[in-house]
Write a structure and sequence with these properties.
Strand order of the largest sheet: 1-2
Distance between the termini: 32 Å
Helix content: 55-70%
Number of strands: 2
Amino acid sequence: MNNMRMLAEEEENDDAAEVTWEDQQHINTFSKLNTRLRGIEERLESLKQEKEALDDLATELELTDEDQTVLYKIGESFLHLRQPRAMKRLEKDQAEITAQLSALTATAEDCEKGMKELKVVLYAKFGRAINLDE
């Protein structure tokens, strides 16, 4: 019964590397970047869905008559707008969403780059003793 092992002998790390203050800072930074990246990914998914909804709305608005009044949602309210004005507002909203998507994508890439650099440093020192993958 005492022969059962959780790890194979070669996987055991008898000479565990000491975690220095600098190493701990690297680990903390990695954790912060990882948390930030997860939040950005959630926000990106939400913005992609919103952009898709705006694209669908653009298709619908193109099919309406120019003198027709449509309900357009701004924030939590719906306003009656003429079709041309609603199209202008929609184009503005689409441009804003596209800009937000671009900015968040760039931020996500920066986080991933920082995480990749920290993985190299941490895996070089700790090897299998640290797990930085999800």
